[in-house]
Design a protein that fits this description.
The protein folds into 2 domains: about 1-65; about 75-115, no CATH class. Helices cover about 65% and strands about 0% of the residues. The protein has about 130 residues and is mostly helical. It has helices at about 1-35, 45-60, 75-85, 90-100, 100-110.
C-alpha cells in the first residue's frame, strides 16, 4: 500500500511540474516571441504542446535507465558493477584491471580513488595555443 501511495504522489508531483513548465513556456513565449519575431501569442495548451514537441524532437523518449526521466535510474548501473565486483575472485579482479576497461576506471574514480581514475584512459593533452 505504501508503494501505491508513493507512486500516486510521484505522479502528482510530475503533473504539477509539467503544469508549471507549461505555464513558464507560455509566459516566456508571450513575453518574448511576439515582440522579437512577430509570432502570435500562445495559449496554455499550445505551450504544453510546444513543450511536448520539444521533448520529442530534442530529447526523444529516453527509456534507457528505466523511465522517461533517464537520470532517475542512472544509479542502477553503478550498483550492478559494485555487486559484480564484490562477487569476483582476486584473479577475476586482476583480469578486469589488466584489461583496462574504461568503465572500471570510472567506477574507481567515482569511489574516491582518483589515482586510479585515469589509468584506463588514452587521452592526449591539447597543446596550449
Amino acid at each position: 500500500m505504501k508503494n501505491f501511495i508513493k507512486f500516486r504522489f510521484g505522479i502528482g508531483i510530475m503533473l504539477v511540474m509539467c503544469a508549471v513548465f507549461a505555464a513558464g513556456v507560455m509566459l516566456l513565449w508571450n513575453a518574448l516571441m511576439p515582440q522579437i519575431f512577430g509570432f502570435p501569442q500562445v495559449s496554455y495548451l499550445q505551450a504544453a504542446g510546444l513543450l511536448l514537441l520539444a521533448r520529442l524532437l530534442f530529447g526523444g523518449l529516453n527509456y534507457r535507465h528505466g523511465g522517461p526521466l533517464g537520470h532517475m535510474g542512472a544509479h542502477h548501473g553503478g550498483n550492478m558493477l559494485r555487486e559484480r565486483w564484490a562477487g569476483m575472485s582476486e584473479a577475476e579482479r586482476a583480469a578486469v584491471i589488466s584489461r583496462g576497461d574504461p568503465r572500471f576506471w570510472d567506477f574507481m574514480r567515482d569511489r574516491g580513488r582518483p589515482d586510479m581514475g585515469d589509468r584506463g584512459r588514452t587521452e592526449t593533452k591539447q597543446p596550449n595555443l
